[in-house]
Design brief:
Chain lengths: 326, 500
């Protein structure tokens, strides 16, 4: 797989070794969960369902990759879910007023980056708490989305704009190879550029990174801008999936992304983790959620299970980290 | 009443590693027992067994001849054993008395209200008993590190401890505070308290300890009365070999100054300090803690722009507070005094820790060249004789000395021109120290200008081409090799002959 090749050619083969066990366990769990759900529902293994599953978690892949960068710096981005609604709204309105799909794409991504830049400015430059700043923009971006949509959805019929999120080649939604391309591009950025090294450095020890002549405050700004850009991309895919812009799009996605990233072995405390783990984390989490839907599990129970998964992985992460620092 | 603890045949393994092997260790009230050894020799493991943090695999611990089980810190406390930690565990917002009585506060007869007056009175009584002057009602945040240590010790004594374990107690103390601590230790001895004293400083050990025990690789290699042994014998048994004494090579220093600092002032910190460093020259600033030298060094490195005066580097004036990124690009390096706070990146590998400052130079066509990094990192590890299982090892698993070598090895890059070192050998053992001195000399040999802050006079004299003594932020005098007068330097540092 490209991803493992990426990872091992990277500067931290050792980190992969340290995380190998974690990844093997995740792969094992993915297999067990798929087998389990296919017993419960014979449709689970159909190519159609795999296509549906992958398409339904395409957005989560993107947001979780952005979240991985953020959490590697020791931060968190609670605003991504609301940002999907906001940047989607900006994109759809740009599209409907100009009629140009490309202006719509650009507007959505710029809007996502703008929210990210606000996060980055307050967190990186003014050194405010990432949790509090993105909690504020979480509400702010949702509010903006409701204002620009006037609390109502907008139908989209421009086929170019809908292509990425809506079209399939046979059973393969086009968004899946797109996500793979983004994964490869972000892996190169994380493992093979100075920015990627700075992401790890800022999360490992901000003060040391600063003294060594790095610019960790700048790194933080760009990490949130990246997370915002991926929210903008996610917005385009979301609009494509349902052929309309929705003010309540992306609800609870920050929760899912954070859970998947921690599940994938990225430390809550920064400096430790890899994109490959996040991909596995999203897959496992997506299969569980999809399986719960297919088996007709009560939606209230689904939320309960999500909460328990997050609590469980946080517990695991914190205890394994404590063990290591003792 | 006389107390003693005897640890007999203590063994402890961590997986395949034998951390302690058949260790016998005793201490008796009224005595100071010094415990020495290189980093990783097993001193801390032994003390953690005594303190109930680790469980022994074999052996017995006897208190006054009766075997006792210490399976948790509470058991140690019950047996009268207290540990004074390097990182002090006081609450800044509470007063001295509040901290001492924390968790067992005195109440006013049957009410839930605190009896602050009685607590303060009892603390005052203890302080008087040991000849210490400290206000029990002062908030701990206003105390210096020496006073905080005293509060910790008094807290231990007031919870009926008779055995105090001190780990490198003088590493963060000024000369004045050290003297006061030694005085306090002498009083405690007279009161029948036993002290286990972990330290690297031979003169301290020989002036205050009755017994000295040396550990190496988990076993006791020497245990003698200090009156029956010598510093050299102790050092030799620590390292297991004749220590090569570091000898400063002689060299000629010429050329224009690389760094020239004129009349640097920062209110309340340093005042009118001037100095020059030429390529290949080792300039050492020294004084007591609080002499202003670390702040001065940080201003030169661009970390602090709040000063008056000028700094010229390579003939150009430097912009105040320009930030370390500019300084590093310009060939400056800094090794900070606190490795764990801003020296290392704990979760990252040795390789990533070394490569960070020169990443830009490894970029080919926008991407990092991993092969180039490997080459530089391997060479840096070799040149500093850093002990690590591989460059992929996470740095936090290394010993203090090896971490410090990593902090040096990042700057060995050929573009380095000025290296600023704050307390370069703080908290590391004699072996690692010798390596660090060699690295510093090698760099100077290569033409790198070096500005050091050191509080250890012997180190100052051994390393320097030029010494600048500081007292309360003012430069006192300058000495040029080989005209170093140790007594005069010590007098300068202490402010002798200075107007008050």
């Amino acid at each position: 797989m490209t991803s493992t090749a990426m990872a091992s050619s990277a500067q931290n083969t050792k980190k992969l070794d340290g995380l190998t066990l974690r990844y093997l366990v995740l792969i094992g769990l993915i297999v067990i969960a798929s087998v389990g759900f296919s017993f419960a529902n014979e449709n689970f293994y159909s190519l159609t369902n795999i296509g549906i599953l992958l398409r339904s978690i395409a957005v989560l892949f993107l947001l979780s990759m952005g979240m991985t960068f953020v959490m590697l710096t020791g931060g968190i981005d609670l605003s991504v879910g609301s940002n999907v609604a906001f940047s989607g709204g900006v994109g759809v309105i740009a599209l409907t007023t100009t009629g140009s799909a490309f202006i719509g794409f650009a507007a959505a991504i710029f809007a996502g980056m703008a929210i990210g830049a606000v996060n980055g400015f307050f967190i990186g430059r003014l050194k405010l708490s990432a949790f509090m700043v993105t909690l504020a923009t979480f509400a702010l971006a949702r509010g903006l989305a409701l204002v620009i949509y006037d609390a109502d959805s907008i139908n989209v019929s421009n086929q170019t704009f809908l292509w990425l999120g809506g079209v399939s080649w046979g059973n393969m939604p086009v968004v899946i190879p797109f996500v793979a391309l983004v994964f490869i591009a972000l892996s190169v950025v994380l493992y093979k550029t100075t920015f990627g090294r700075d992401v790890y450095a800022a999360g490992s020890n901000f003060a040391t990174a600063f003294v060594l002549g790095r610019r960790p405050e700048k790194t933080l700004v760009w990490v949130y801008v990246l997370s915002g850009a991926l929210a903008g991309l996610s917005a385009i895919i979301t609009v494509g999936r349902v052929s309309s812009g929705q003010p309540w799009a992306g609800l609870y996605l920050e929760f899912d992304a954070i859970t998947a990233v921690i599940l994938g072995g990225t430390s809550l405390f920064g400096g430790r983790g890899m994109l490959l783990g996040t991909i596995l984390g999203v897959l496992l989490y997506g299969i569980i959620i999809n399986g719960l839907v297919l088996t007709g599990t009560n939606p209230y129970l689904q939320s309960l299970i999500k909460g328990m998964i997050l609590l469980g992985v946080v517990l695991l992460d914190t205890y394994t980290q404590r063990g290591k620092t003792a | 009443m006389s107390n003693r603890i005897d640890m007999k045949g203590i063994g402890k393994s961590f997986f395949a590693t034998r951390a302690l092997d058949n260790v016998d260790f005793s201490c008796v009230s009224g005595e100071v027992h010094a415990l020495v050894g290189l980093n990783g020799a097993g001193k801390s493991t032994l003390m953690k067994v005594l303190g109930g943090v680790y469980q022994k695999d074999e052996g017995v611990i006897e208190h006054n001849g009766k075997p006792i089980e210490i399976t948790a810190p509470a058991d140690a406390a019950k047996a009268g054993i207290s540990m004074i930690h390097q990182e002090l565990s006081l609450i800044n917002e509470l007063t001295v008395a509040g901290n001492i009585f924390l968790g067992r506060e005195l109440k006013r007869g049957g009410t839930p209200f605190l009896d602050k007056r009685e607590m303060a009175r009892q603390v005052k009584m203890q302080l008087d008993r040991f000849g210490l002057s400290l206000d029990p009602n002062k908030p701990v945040r206003e105390l210096n590190s020496g006073e905080k240590q005293i509060v910790e010790i008094i807290r231990a004594l007031m919870s009926d401890s008779w055995l105090i374990v001190m780990d490198e107690p003088t590493s963060a103390l000024s000369e004045e505070d050290k003297d006061r601590l030694f005085e306090f230790i002498a009083r405690m001895k007279a009161e029948g308290i036993a002290i286990i004293y972990i330290s690297h400083h031979m003169p301290e050990i020989f002036s205050i300890a009755e017994q000295v025990t040396v550990m190496r690789d988990g076993v006791i290699v020497l245990s003698e009365r200090t009156s029956d042994t010598t510093e050299d014998a102790v050092i030799q048994s620590m390292t297991g070999e004749e220590l090569e004494h570091f000898v400063k090579p002689h060299k000629e220093i010429e050329g224009d100054p690389l760094l020239s600092v004129q009349d640097l002032c920062k209110a309340g910190t340093y005042d009118q300090v001037s100095l020059e460093v030429r390529p290949g020259e080792i300039v050492v600033m020294t004084g007591l803690r609080g002499c202003g030298a670390p702040e001065l060094a940080k201003a030169i490195f661009g970390l602090d722009g709040d000063y008056q005066g000028t700094v010229h580097y390579k003939g150009r004036p430097l912009k105040p507070g320009r930030g370390p990124s500019v300084s590093v690009r310009d060939g400056m390096g800094l090794v900070t005094e606190n490795r764990d706070k801003n020296g290392i990146l704990p979760p990252l590998s040795v390789r990533d820790n070394i490569a960070l400052p020169f990443l830009e130079k490894t970029v080919r066509a926008g991407l990092i060249d991993g092969g180039y990094i490997d080459k530089v990192v391997d060479k840096a590890i070799r040149d500093t004789s850093t002990k690590t299982s591989s460059p992929d090892q996470e740095i936090r698993f290394l010993s203090g000395g090896n971490k410090q070598k990593i902090c040096f090895s990042r700057w060995l890059d050929e573009d380095l021109e000025l290296l600023i070192l704050l307390e370069p050998t703080r908290g590391i053992d004699v072996h690692a120290k010798a390596d660090i001195y060699r690295i510093i000399e090698d760099l100077a040999e290569r033409g790198v200008g070096i500005l050091i802050l050191s509080y250890e006079i012997d180190e100052v004299i051994m390393l320097a081409d030029r010494v600048l003594t500081l007292y309360q932020g003012q430069s006192v005098s300058e000495y040029v090799y080989p005209n170093f007068e140790k007594d005069q330097m010590l007098a300068d540092m202490a402010g002798a002959g200075q107007p008050h």
